[in-house]
Amino acid sequence: MSAPAGPAQRSALLPVRARELFRGGLVTPTAGWCDGFAQANLMAVPRDWAFELLLFAQRNPKPCPVLAVLDAGEVTGPVLGDGDVRTDLPLYSLYREGEAAGTREDVLDVWQDDLVTFALGCSFTFEAALQEAGIPVAHIDQGVNVPMYRTNLPCEPAGRLSGPLVVSMRPIPADRVADAVRITSRYPAVHGAPVHVGAPGELGIRDLSAPDYGDAVQIPAGHLPVFWACGVTPQAAVLESGVPVAIGHAPGHMLVTDVPNWRYQVP
């Protein structure tokens, strides 16, 4: 199957076809893919760290909203259809002993039968709703990965697991910020409303043009930077806490699920 040629083709693709492309070696950020279907962050840790990660998520629900947890060694689950968490993301990040150990197009050779996999809500899920309301999404429009930043805000720790809040940023026209807050607040399972608007310095972010993950975006005149909690937060915690081995999605390269967006929308 050939890769979709443009944004409209990527948007119209079914999740099973997208996962087939990623399994075949296509590496690309997934913002704008498979309109109508939820995307998820991935984090797999050894079984003896899994309770702490679950507790970390419960204590920090904005950046870590849990959509599904697979049993130790399981590689598929109800949000995936026939998918495989070891092969069906476009790119993975590997961590060993609290150090980044590179990226991989699949993790078959490093998979362990004691790994417990968490699927966490992703803000890509509500981007279609923003676009439908006429609110631009800069990284999609500019054809780059979403910018993400480590902040100076500590998450509430859980046992051995601790780390900073990570946020994603989207520049929003100043007169549409209230609309963006209202729209995204209806998706609490995928980070919900923003955590901050306007002043990156208050989050410890010195330079919006130098994100810690993803790509910088141009911020047009009259737009404000708006920050949402980000599912890369557990990866920052894994780094800080020295987890022996962990596997996550490469930031911006998400798990495309079979779950329709509306399942995560509240009135």
Short description:
By secondary structure, the protein is of the alpha+beta class.
Task: Name the features.
alpha+beta; 7-stranded antiparallel β-sheet; 267 residues; 4-stranded antiparallel β-sheet
Mind sketching the topology for me?
Layout: H1 7-12, H2 15-23, E1 37-46, H3 47-59, E2 66-69, E3 92-96, E4 99-104, E5 115-121, H4 127-132, H5 138-141, E6 148-154, E7 164-173, H6 177-184, E8 196-197, E9 223-229, H7 233-241, E10 245-249, E11 255-260
Antiparallel strand pairs: 1-5, 1-10, 1-11, 2-5, 3-4, 3-10, 6-7, 7-9, 8-9
What do you see in this structure?
By secondary structure, the chain is an alpha+beta fold. 21% of the residues lie in helices and 26% in strands. A hairpin with a 2-residue loop joins strand 3 (92-96) and strand 4. It is globular. The model has no long low-confidence stretch (mean pLDDT 96).
